[in-house]
């Protein structure tokens, strides 16, 4: 055995151990400094909340002064009116600053609060923010195949109640996951349209409804009957102009589905209340979806006339949500 090789190996091992030890010490020191910064942030938030109470008291006094100003004569009123208006501007600015600071402390989504409580979900590191955004888009890309696979399996393997239930459970998981991720993105500055989150609340309710209520044919099957499945009209990065007419057509089909369920609800006999309730609820949610989708799409298009049609961006985070699933 070569003694020099052993000594060199020992030296390399010791150097690596010393370097890792230094890295660990630096890491621990950085974490401590970061925690100190977070404590300072908490102190700033607490001070803002205390100052907000004082600001509210001043606002109440300002309202009283404003009322008294109405009973003052013209010349004297002019003397104080500009000062009163300037005071109101400063009070409003105080509210804006306080809300900006305090906003980071609380969970502002009722959906998130119902699942995880009022825990703050702010991602302070911009790298983590962008990673979370990428994971959101990657999740939608990875799950696209299931929106094709499940309908095809139902067509070619004949209808199976087990496969149907698995499909509905997947949709429930998918829409809950999207709603969670979108609410967290919203907490971290994403400008995603609120309708897309409401849309996913509705669709997860539909998937739950279709899972718990037993599907039953309302008429005898005819040889010319066709099957319908969920239309996939969204790509995580859908920014092609030719998709817009497709989206309009999809929303029209959604409205037709709502009319179809409404026709069954009013025009077909039912053996029990649950079956009628199922058709009524499906008619309602299918009627809400196209109007919400259409109004939000028009809003996005009108708000971004110089950019591609279906993408809305943010300086740090942006959710690209272009259609409906």
UniProtKB/TrEMBL annotation:
Residue stretches spanning the membrane: 144-175, 240-266, 278-298
Main location: membrane
Ranges in coiled-coil conformation: 17-44
Domain of life according to the entry: Eukaryota
Cellular compartments annotated: Membrane
Kinase is among the record's keywords: no
Pfam families for the chain: TMEM120A-B (PF07851)
Sorted UniProt keywords: Coiled coil, Membrane, Transmembrane, Transmembrane helix
Topology of the protein relative to the lipid bilayer: Multi-pass membrane protein
GO cellular component terms listed in the entry, alphabetical order: membrane
Protein family (similarity comment): Belongs to the TMEM120 family.
PANTHER family: TRANSMEMBRANE PROTEIN 120 HOMOLOG (PTHR21433:SF0), TRANSMEMBRANE PROTEIN INDUCED BY TUMOR NECROSIS FACTOR ALPHA (PTHR21433)
Name the UniProt record assigns to this protein: Transmembrane protein
Species this protein is from: Reticulomyxa filosa
């Amino acid at each position: 055995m070569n003694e020099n090789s052993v000594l060199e190996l020992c030296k390399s091992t010791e150097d690596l151990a010393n370097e890792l030890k230094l890295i660990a010490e630096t890491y621990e020191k950085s974490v401590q400094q970061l925690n100190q910064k977070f404590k300072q942030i908490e102190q700033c938030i607490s001070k803002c909340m205390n100052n907000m109470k004082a600001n509210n008291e001043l606002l109440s006094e300002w309202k009283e002064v404003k009322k008294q100003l109405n009973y003052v004569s013209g010349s004297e009123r002019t003397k104080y009116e500009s000062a009163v208006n300037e005071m109101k501007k400063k009070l409003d600015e105080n509210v804006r600053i306080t809300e900006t600071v305090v906003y980071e402390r609380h969970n502002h989504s009722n959906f998130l609060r119902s699942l995880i409580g009022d825990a703050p979900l702010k991602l302070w590191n911009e790298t983590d923010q962008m990673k979370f955004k990428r994971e959101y888009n990657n999740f939608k890309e990875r799950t696209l195949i299931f929106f094709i696979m499940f309908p095809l399996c139902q067509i070619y393997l004949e209808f199976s109640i087990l496969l149907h239930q698995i499909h509905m459970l997947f949709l429930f998981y998918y829409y809950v996951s999207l709603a969670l991720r979108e609410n967290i993105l919203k907490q971290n500055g994403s400008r995603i349209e609120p309708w897309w989150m409401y849309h996913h609340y509705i669709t997860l309710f539909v998937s739950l409804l279709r899972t718990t209520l037993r599907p039953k044919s309302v008429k005898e099957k005819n040889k010319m009957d066709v099957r319908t499945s969920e239309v996939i009209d969204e790509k995580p990065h859908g920014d092609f102009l030719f998709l817009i007419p497709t989206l309009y057509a999809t929303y029209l089909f959604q409205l037709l589905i709502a009319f179809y369920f409404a026709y069954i609800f009013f025009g077909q006999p039912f053996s029990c209340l649950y079956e009628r309730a199922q058709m009524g609820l499906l008619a309602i949610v299918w009627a809400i979806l196209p109007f919400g989708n259409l109004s939000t799409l028009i809003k996005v298009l009108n708000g971004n006339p110089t950019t591609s049609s279906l993408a809305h961006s943010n300086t740090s985070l942006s959710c690209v949500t272009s259609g409906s699933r």
